Amino acid sequence: MNIQAPRGTYDVLPDQSAKWQEVEQKINELCRLYQYKEIRTPIFEHTELFQRGVGDTTDIVQKEMYTFQDRGERSLTLRPEGTASVVRSYVENKLFGLPDQPVKLSYFGPMFRYERPQAGRMRQFVQFGIEAIGSKDPAIDAEVISLAMEVYRSVGLKRLRLVLNSLGDTESRIAHKQALIEHFEPRIEEFCSDCQTRLTKNPLRILDCKVDRDHPLMETAPSLSDYLNEESRQYFEEVKGYLEELGIDYVVDPNLVRGLDYYNHTAFEIMSDAEGFGAITTLAGGGRYNGLVEDLGGPESPGIGFAMSIERLLLALEMEKVEIGQSQNLEVYVVAMDQSTKKKAFSVVKDLRSNGISADMDFAGRKLKAQMKSADRKKAAYVIVIGESEMESGRVAIKEMATGEQQQVSFEEIAETIQTKKSLEE
Ligand code: HAM
Known about the structure:
By secondary structure, the protein is of the alpha+beta class. It has 2 domains: 14-169 and 229-319, Bira Bifunctional Protein, Domain 2 (BirA Bifunctional Protein, domain 2); 329-425, Anticodon-binding domain (Rossmann fold), CATH 3.40.50. It has helices at 14-34, 47-53, 59-63, 83-92, 138-155, 170-184, 193-201, 216-219, 230-245, 292-295, 310-319, 339-354, 368-377, 388-393, 414-425; strands spanning 37-38, 44-46, 66-69, 75-78, 103-112, 124-133, 160-166, 251-252, 264-272, 282-288, 303-309, 332-336, 359-361, 382-386, 395-400, 406-410. The strands form 3 sheets. Strands 1-5-6-11-10-9-7-8 form an 8-stranded mixed sheet, sandwiched between helices. The protein has a 5-stranded mixed sheet with strand order 13-12-14-15-16, sandwiched between helices. α1 packs antiparallel against α5 (138-155) and α5 (138-155) runs parallel beside α9. The protein is elongated. It binds histidyl-adenosine monophosphate. Histidyl-adenosine monophosphate (HAM) binds next to β6, β10, β11 and α11. It is an enzyme of class 6 (ligase). It holds the Pfam family tRNA-synt_His.
């Protein structure tokens, strides 16, 4: 049997890569505007990092990690997410010592989760994420959310919904945890074995359970919003105030719990309301993690961040029928009528490229008609035909494919004319 790509993975083929590059370009530009600097961490880490960082009772750690032993018998794991690695690096490299806190970091790269693959859920997927570590200013929460929204807006998505919740501070969470235990304990044997373990270890996770989600006790479970202390309530109000200042609409959903253990205070997800989306409509998720740096051995350094997968962003573009990646289409196709004019065509192509204009020609011995077809397939904006008469007169016709219009110019004027046409289009 032929070897295929592993389940839940895929190839980005050349006809798709322009979209990926455009998304990445937009992201890089936004990170520059917001001053989030890229950090690159290893693709695999010590397994313990995720056990401690993401949390032992989460689905990610219990069921979804790609964990293996290396030849030195260390337990390593392909990263299922980026936050734990970024925080590890912040601690290990003593970035908490930098005078400019918060340290604002961004990352872009593959993550791995052993999940059941479906549209928008892959086993290898690419996350873009940011982390602002070293500040508990509610304004930075709004900044992080704002950057996430801007990424989607910059590629042309409109049908977005920002869902917000507060998970409160430790004190609020302990009070809520106690209430959850009291709520579920009397009927815990009706729940799956995972939930039975979660009851003592982390009852909040029960609310996240995919198996028992229709159990009647789920709906009546005590909501964290009723257990927020004054400080947590106040913090949440301030975050909302900053969002309003930025004109960012949101809905508060007290049932929003995230699938990772490190969160407190602000938690958020951005969903797509585009028609045709399957079961998975969450485009991005994030939140505040005030204890994580300490859990991983650093000094008190509150943080917040988010991550989004590019796969889901591209899916949302498809659903909203937004086309991107066109800027990489071919600008000029140069046709050589026959072998005698090929060298001239070759040098015209070179000259165009030197002037920053994308240009291409035939390398398969095609006749004139077939070359024209090839130019069409490549979506060339302009075509130039070079035959004997052009060689004699020293002039060529630049044909604009969209309109059929032609303009006669000398060989020397080709690049300049195209440049002028391009700048008129912009
Ligand atoms: P997460 O909610 O596990 O959070 O994932 C964030 C985003 O990654 C999701 O909203 C989705 O876009 C994408 N994603 C997750 N799993 C898959 C998958 N199997 N296939 C495709 N896309 C997927 C985190 O990872 C946190 N580290 C986010 C964060 C950063 N919180 C604070 N800072």
